[in-house]
Design goal:
Number of strands: 9
Shape: globular
Helix content: 40-55%
Number of helices: 9
Mean pLDDT: 89
């Protein structure tokens, strides 16, 4: 009997790798993508050895059209039951000083690539009457801060796109969910200049492990939620901030960001 297959982009580490391990544990064959050959091959080997499932690795750069096409060609025609659009990177800096190449790369990875991959797997899912699409957004769509306009913007697209797609697919049997994680212990924040020593809980600010994010998001999927905000503390914080009048929110976040993060004004791709 043919195993069901899960495709996960950006599975080299962090949340993507955690999803790969989880779906491997659940018995799914995997197609995982990433850029760091040795690291992602190590992830694949560990999953094969532990869960005895097939793991195909596709080395690709999803900020480039050729990289997306490579993944599309590899999964076309396969029985894909789950697609997790997790690939991404961070960039900080004032928009007026941003690098156009970085802006384009962010849009390609978070907007163009997910749309194209979803469009590739959807016909089969709709025909079978089953399938799941998980798009990894961010709590940043609810907590916008200075120097993060582009990142928050593309992640907001993923959230809104997911909601619209959910309504387009009502009655087809295909599930769609956007996951908006809060602070998570991955190499993402370290690459953005936040050393591990600063990645600690402080008051309402709580950190989660990638495994916690994955497990909580899958529980939300079972409950039929379209937007998953893993962690009670993250949900409470986003709801509280949503109650603040926008003019007051902008002033508060500007002051908070200046005091706590000392945002760099030059944009850097990490």
């Amino acid at each position: 009997m043919e195993n069901k297959t899960t495709v996960i982009t950006g599975a080299t580490s962090g949340i993507g790798a955690a999803y790969a391990h989880k779906f491997g544990e659940l018995g799914y064959d995997l197609v995982i993508t990433g850029r760091r050959k040795e690291t992602i091959e190590s992830v694949a080997a560990g999953i094969r050895e532990k869960y005895y499932v097939r793991v195909e690795v596709i080395l690709s750069e999803l900020s480039e059209a050729e990289g997306v096409s490579k993944v599309m060609e590899s999964i076309k025609g396969k029985k894909i039951e789950i697609l997790v659009n997790n690939a991404g990177f961070g960039a900080t800096g004032l928009y007026q000083r941003s690098d156009p190449a970085v802006m384009e790369a962010l849009a390609n990875v978070n907007v163009a690539a997910p749309m194209k991959l979803i469009h590739t797997v959807l016909p089969g899912m709709v025909e079978r009457g089953s399938g799941t699409i998980i798009n990894i957004s961010s709590e940043g769509v609810f907590m916008i801060v200075p120097g993060n306009a582009i990142y928050s913007g593309v992640k907001a697209f993923l959230k809104t796109f997911t909601e619209g797609l959910h309504m387009d697919l009502m009655g087809t049997g295909v599930k769609v969910m956007a996951v908006c994680p809060g602070l998570t212990h991955t190499d993402f924040h370290e690459k953005m200049g936040m050393e591990k020593g600063r990645q600690v809980d402080r008051g309402p600010v709580k950190w989660m492990s990638p495994e916690e994010v994955v497990n909580l998001s899958l529980k939300d999927l079972e409950k039929g939620r379209v937007i998953s905000i893993p962690g009670l503390h993250t949900r409470m914080l986003t709801r509280f901030l949503g109650l603040i009048p926008r003019k007051s929110y902008y002033k508060f976040m500007y002051g908070f960001s200046q005091k706590n993060f000392k945002r760099k004004t030059d944009q850097v791709k990490k």
